[in-house]
Amino acid sequence: MRLLLPTTATLPLFDVAASRRIEARALTHSPDLMARAGLAVAKLALALRRGDGPVWIACGPGNNGGDGQVAAQRLTEAAVPVHVGHDAPHRPSLVIDALLGLGLNRAPSTEMQLSFAAMAACGAPVLAVDLPSGLLADTGQAAGGHAVRADHTLALLTLKPGLFTGEGRAHCGRLWFDDLGIAPDEAPSAELLGPTPRPARRATSHKGSHGQVLVVGGAPGMQGAARLAARAALACGAGRVYVDLLDLPADELADAGRPELMRGTLGELPQAVGVVGCGAGAAIADQLPALLQQLPRLVLDADALNAVATHPRLQDLLRARPAGTTVLTPHPLEAARLLGRDTGAVQADRLTAARDLSAHLNGCVVLKGSGSVIASAGARPAICASGGPALATAGSGDVLAGWLGGLWAQQPDADAHTIACAGVDAHGRAGEVDGVLRAGDLIERLAALR
Ligand SMILES: NC(=O)C1=CN([C@@H]2O[C@H](COP(=O)(O)OP(=O)(O)OC[C@H]3O[C@@H](n4cnc5c(N)ncnc54)[C@H](OP(=O)(O)O)[C@@H]3O)[C@@H](O)[C@H]2O)[C@@H](O)CC1
Ligand SMILES: Nc1ncnc2c1ncn2[C@@H]1O[C@H](COP(=O)(O)OP(=O)(O)O)[C@@H](O)[C@H]1O
């Protein structure tokens, strides 16, 4: 058993169907899985318990409840007072939520909801077995809007995607994992991103070795967005970063606060990585056809995505680009516009939405938000568990787009999916602070990452 996050390696994720297959095969040679699961729960409970009061174990009707029952036996053997039932005892030292796990198949019953409320009200820390009850393992949504908010979750046998995306992070608390001694014997459904080292810089390299980025965006009044993206590309290590700000007078600096940044245009920079759309407004629609047809590598964000959503010709041009040459970075509302769905439908199943959008537009899609999902045709989808609410502030998405452009400039042979996975994880790690992180400070933290 181990504490999972922050993860130092990329880890396999298995959806409900895959977890069930792995479990069924494992049971043929290891019939004591539930004994192992219950023991792991009891061990963690001993470590997490606060005070001498009873451990309240709420057990459901299936095997999740079975894990809870085994944990109750083990704790009793260790002379720990235990209360098994759906109602809270007096002053519990810990709650073990073993009501519903993988078998959740409908909104929690009223009786279950009452137990959820009692857990929240009893004042003791809550340890969820495998999944917080009510959380859907494949999507990270609370079924019917009701799920336990745990302080700790001990995932068993496999890690499920819903622990890391959608509402998952908000419901799981600190994540622990015990594989019960079973090595998964099939390909993962998705992966949890681990860190990727920054591109190496040879001792003999010069600025021409590290590529060019062209940031196109920044309509009047929104130029800060494009400048943040450009600053991020520069901080990432791109050799030269140019800015094409919409409607900026010819004699004005690209960015008075960052004299390293230069003015440039598509005509002058046909090999640059394009970072297009940050603060661009509707005017970007006129520039997009040339950008989509000419730039070999493109990151499309914000208003570029909104333009694509409203202009079918831009969608055709996007689809005509070679595979692996475009990254799209929509937040859920932008993804909803591109898919013709509402935001709720996108959030209800973020993995599916990202995959659908990737197939629809022939690009690598980064569906942003808690547990960003990265999806590309032919690649296993990835989920980013790093990052947090400090990133929920204007400009952090612009920084991501610029950082992706900067990474790609330095690694011209990498495909869109590889760049997106590396950049999204780094962005999240840099964003793990208490409170709020201003976008400018996020750039400095990214630059300081190894
Ligand atoms: N087998 C093993 O060795 C191992 C098992 N493991 C453990 O088993 C767990 C999976 O067990 P599981 O498949 O029995 O499903 P589980 O989550 O207990 O729920 C099913 C029950 O809940 C009910 N129910 C469903 N939704 C409901 C609702 N909304 N409100 C109310 N009731 C609802 C459903 O009722 P039904 O649909 O049948 O009417 C059924 O009775 C897994 O998460 C892990 O903890 C692992 O430790 C590995 C080793
Ligand atoms: N609660 C959160 N947890 C993890 N990442 C978050 C959270 N809130 C925002 N982010 C990240 O911050 C960035 C916000 O991007 P976006 O919504 O486009 O902002 P903006 O357009 O203002 O720059 C995305 O990368 C998103 O994944």
Offer a few descriptive terms.
450 residues; alpha/beta; Rossmann fold; 2 domains; eleven-stranded mixed beta sheet; elongated; binds ligand NPW; binds adenosine-5'-diphosphate
List the helices and strands and how they pair.
Elements: E1 2-3, E2 11-13, H1 16-29, H2 33-48, E3 55-59, H3 63-77, E4 82-84, E5 94-98, H4 110-121, E6 126-129, E7 152-156, H5 168-172, E8 174-178, E9 190-192, E10 212-217, H6 223-236, E11 240-245, E12 262-263, E13 273-276, H7 284-294, E14 297-300, H8 302-310, H9 312-320, E15 326-328, H10 332-339, H11 343-348, H12 350-361, E16 364-367, E17 373-375, E18 382-383, H13 396-410, H14 416-430, H15 439-448
The structure holds ligand NPW and adenosine-5'-diphosphate.
Structure description:
The chain has 450 residues and is an alpha/beta fold. The protein folds into 2 domains: 2-192, YjeF N-terminal domain (Rossmann fold, 3-Layer(aba) Sandwich), CATH 3.40.50; 207-448, Ribokinase (UDP-N-acetylmuramoyl-L-alanine:D-glutamate ligase), CATH 3.40.1190.20. It is built from 15 helices and 18 strands. It has helices at 16-29, 33-48, 63-77, 110-121, 168-172, 223-236, 284-294, 302-310, 312-320, 332-339, 343-348, 350-361, 396-410, 416-430, 439-448, and strands spanning 2-3, 11-13, 55-59, 82-84, 94-98, 126-129, 152-156, 174-178, 190-192, 212-217, 240-245, 262-263, 273-276, 297-300, 326-328, 364-367, 373-375, 382-383. The strands form 2 sheets. An 11-stranded mixed sheet has the order 2-9-18-17-16-15-14-13-10-11-12, with helices on both faces. It has a 7-stranded mixed sheet with strand order 1-8-7-6-5-3-4, sandwiched between helices. Strand 13 (273-276), helix 7 and strand 14 form a beta-alpha-beta unit. Bound molecules: ligand NPW and adenosine-5'-diphosphate (ADP). Adenosine-5'-diphosphate is lined by residues 302, 331, 368-370, 372, 387-389, 391-392, 394-398, 400, 427. Adenosine-5'-diphosphate binds at residues 302, 331, 368-370, 372, 387-389, 391-392, 394-398, 400, 427.
